[in-house]
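SAMPLE LOG
Freezer: B-3
Tube label: C17
Construct: single chain, 404 aa
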Amino acid sequence: MRNGSIIVQKYGGSSVSTVDKLKQVARLVATRAREGHRMVVVVSAMGDATDELLAKAQAVAGEPDRRELDMLLSVGERISMSLLAMAIREEGLEAVSLTGSQSGIITTASHAQARIMEVRPFRVEDELDAGRVVIVAGYQGVSYKREVTTLGRGGSDTTAVALAAALSAEACEIYSDVEGVFTADPRVVPDATPLAELGYAEMQELAEAGAKVLNAQAVEFAKQKNIAIYARKTGSEGRGTVVRLNAPVAPSGVRGIAHERAVATVEASGVSLAQAREALDAMDALGATPRQLNLAGGCFSCVLGTEDLHEPRTLEARLEAILGPGVLSTGRGAVSLIGEGITRHAHVMRAALDAAAEVEAEVLGVATSSFRITLLVPSLRVEPLTRALHAAVGLGPVPALPVD
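STRUCTURE (predicted):
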């Protein structure tokens, strides 16, 4: 058996999007291995490979069967893992690539949005003991029915955290093309600033509200297992962001802002409990996860993220059959302010509503929790509102002090 601490790293699609970038990752991994660490590396598909495969599937079938879609989309990560293993061998180290199923990633049977149930990392441990760097295809696993499954967008994060827990790893490092987690998406808000550390709950809320750096299920898994996650930029020597237990609370009440450009809403009146259950069953069967669910006085409403929704027309038809015509609406987006105890600060809600008025964003709905204030607005006003909110709640850069 080989000694040395285990490090689990995950590299996103942008980090392995070209052969040159993939070779850079191989050099980075080799450096850590030569320092004495036992390396497990989880990879996403190269660049936009998943989107390209999805586009091909939709060109063949408007709403592809989700089981066949999983078989197709899982190919992207397999390409990355094989090429990276070859590149690491070129660096003079032994390496082996493993699929999700070969790595022991056991999931639920829900295609396109499966959840990891357990990890049986016996093969991974054997390869580490043999002195090899282990490259694992992220985003995928196998169900108890021995079906290939995928974990939804960002699922490679969950693969990495789950493996880190199962292997009792020293660290779980998530690498992407940005220097950690920012107060907002820096591509939308140029003044966004990096966050040094976050608690699990705040990071999970940010991820569920649309922040792309970390996957919400991965953060949930890390919280359950008390695993610190380090989010960093590939090749950078910066500290990045650490997500851990007992991170300090933001004094202003607002830690960051997340947005989703496109969500769908379900709204119906005169709904019985039986109809509500039937509607929820229909959403679950098609992989649509309802958020901000409300049922009161026969009025039923919820918000659906559309990123992993592959059968929108089928869902709309089923919901209309249960709840009536015109219940599913699109063309909407969501902007969320995130922070522990955020609703204790009344000025935050006032600032949010004032910012919406400033950019002429019609507020179609408001939802709150102890960590979040979400404004539902037309899709075209999402980015202007995100920038306005960032300034309104004081998340921009601190002004320089005057020189005497």
